[in-house]
């Protein structure tokens, strides 16, 4: 399994968590700290998988996903984009516990993301997705 993974995220704690998880399965993660930097990195690195934090300082992740889908050339158009929620669920809100992540997931998919991962981040799910997407890329 090989390929470049790009994570567009400004929160250092989130970056470190995902970097440790990705390195634990023998992959290398490239990081961009803003949407503008992320767009530039996509052009330069041509990643196999893109991870996007939804709360960036210069643009929200939904807008960035739409921009990536518009800008990606034919060779990169099918690159999987994994949206990672910026928000932990509100533990005090039992009644609407599923509504915020569900609405955010719908927005992410509508914006062009392949998958939405809520917080707290399920590292095993992230590993499974990366392995699946990278294996599919190796077949083409």
Identify the strand order in the major beta sheet: 2-1-3-4-5
* Whole-number total of structural domains: 1
Structural class: alpha/beta
Main sheet characteristics: 5 strands, parallel
Reported by name, the CATH topology is Rossmann fold
Overview of this protein structure:
- The chain has 140 residues and is an alpha/beta fold.
- It has a single domain, classed as Response regulator (Rossmann fold, 3-Layer(aba) Sandwich), CATH 3.40.50.2300.
- The chain is 46% helix and 14% strand.
- It has five helices and five strands, in the order E-H-E-H-E-H-E-H-E-H.
- The chain has helices spanning 12-24, 35-45, 61-71, 99-110, 123-139; strands spanning 5-8, 29-32, 49-53, 81-84, 115-117.
- The chain has a five-stranded parallel beta sheet, sandwiched between helices.
- It is globular, with a radius of gyration of 14 Å.
- The protein starts with a strand and ends with a helix.
- 29% of the residues are buried.
- Mean pLDDT is 88; it is low at 93-97.
Nutshell version of this structure?
With 140 residues, the protein is an alpha/beta fold. The protein has 5 helices and 5 strands.
Please specify the SSE layout and strand pairing.
Layout: E1 5-8, H1 12-24, E2 29-32, H2 35-45, E3 49-53, H3 61-71, E4 81-84, H4 99-110, E5 115-117, H5 123-139
Parallel strand pairs: 1-2, 1-3, 3-4, 4-5
Q: Tags for this entry?
A:
140 residues, alpha/beta, Rossmann fold, 5 helices, 5 strands, 14% strand, globular
């Amino acid at each position: 399994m090989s390929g470049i993974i790009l994570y567009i995220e400004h929160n250092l704690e989130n970056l470190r968590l995902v970097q440790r998880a990705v390195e634990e399965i023998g992959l290398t993660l490239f990081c961009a700290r803003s949407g503008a930097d992320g767009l530039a990195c996509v052009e330069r690195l041509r990643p196999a998988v893109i991870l996007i934090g939804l709360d960036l300082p210069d643009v929200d992740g939904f807008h960035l996903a739409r921009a990536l889908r518009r800008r990606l050339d034919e060779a990169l158009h099918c690159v999987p984009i994994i949206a990672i929620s910026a928000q932990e669920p509100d533990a005090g809100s039992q009644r609407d516990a599923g509504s915020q992540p569900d609405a955010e997931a719908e927005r992410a998919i509508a914006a062009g993301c392949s998958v939405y991962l809520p917080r707290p981040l399920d590292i095993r799910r992230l590993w499974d997705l990366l392995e699946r997407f990278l294996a599919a890329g190796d077949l083409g």
